[in-house]
Design the sequence.
């Protein structure tokens, strides 16, 4: 992977994409943990509880990214991924185990990314619970609909109002890197022509409590609130 800093932040992801823990990624991360720093020398700081490097508490909260692909019969599939982050201005990175989605990616070289929101919690969680390999009509069961992307060989899920259309740059060692060729947003989530998170109402995955949370109010200005220390 490129030697660039990977910003691991849910809000950074929503500005174009962060990382998570989940059942699907579990096996891979348990394997990764075997290779991590041995834990016996980890020291405690007074007043702080250590959790070691157990993956379930790493980088929470995390974005709930919905990856949509075509399978070989052009049936749409969607999966949830929370181990996702922004790699560059127009590149995203997602840590993926083997899924129907990864088979689809190998076939088409393309995918779309949308963001689970308060209106789509149940459907989005379902997309993370069940594999299209086991349930061929996975997407149809939720009643979600789709439109073929005019820009990449992947479906846009109509019920998600913010979508990135992406081409696969590489998929190696479980790391998918995608180039964002277009971002589109439904008018319903725009204010003055810009994506308005108070309208999108994205959710984040809380890996400590294993739940989804709504985002709260704006509490400060980016590159602004800190100026009082300048
Ligand atoms: C909250 C949550 C987060 C998840 N994050 C990831 C992830 O980052 N990477 C991954 O490989 N699987 C992740 N999964 C698991 C997949 O979404 C799941 O295995 C899904 O059924 C795969 O669908 P598919 O086989 O139809 O592609 C996550 C699941 C949930 C519920």
Sequence:
């Amino acid at each position: 992977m490129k030697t660039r800093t990977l910003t691991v932040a849910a809000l950074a992801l929503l500005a174009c994409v962060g990382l998570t823990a989940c059942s699907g990624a579990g096996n891979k991360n348990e394997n990764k943990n075997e290779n991590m720093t041995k834990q016996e020398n980890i020291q405690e700081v007074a007043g702080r509880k250590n959790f070691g490097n157990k993956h379930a508490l790493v980088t929470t909260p995390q974005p709930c990214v919905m990856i949509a692909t075509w399978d070989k019969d052009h049936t749409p599939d969607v999966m949830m991924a929370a181990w996702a982050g922004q790699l560059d201005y127009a590149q995203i990175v997602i840590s993926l185990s083997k899924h129907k989605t990864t088979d689809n990616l190998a076939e088409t070289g393309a995918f779309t990314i949308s963001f689970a929101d308060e209106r789509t919690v149940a459907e989005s969680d379902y997309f993370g619970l069940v594999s299209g390999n086991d349930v061929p009509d996975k997407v149809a069961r939720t009643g979600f609909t789709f439109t073929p992307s005019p820009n990449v060989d992947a479906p846009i899920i109509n019920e998600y109002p913010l979508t990135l259309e992406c081409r696969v740059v590489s998929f190696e060692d479980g790391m998918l890197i995608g180039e964002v060729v277009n971002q589109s947003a439904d008018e319903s989530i725009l204010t003055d022509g810009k994506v308005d998170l108070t309208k999108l109402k994205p959710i984040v995955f809380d890996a400590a409590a294993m739940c989804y949370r709504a985002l709260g109010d704006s509490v400060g200005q980016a590159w602004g609130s800190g100026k009082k220390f300048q």
Q: What stands out?
A: Residues 20, 22-25, 77, 79-83, 95-97, 99-101, 125, 128-133, 205 surround flavin mononucleotide (CB under 6 Å). The radius of gyration is 18 Å.
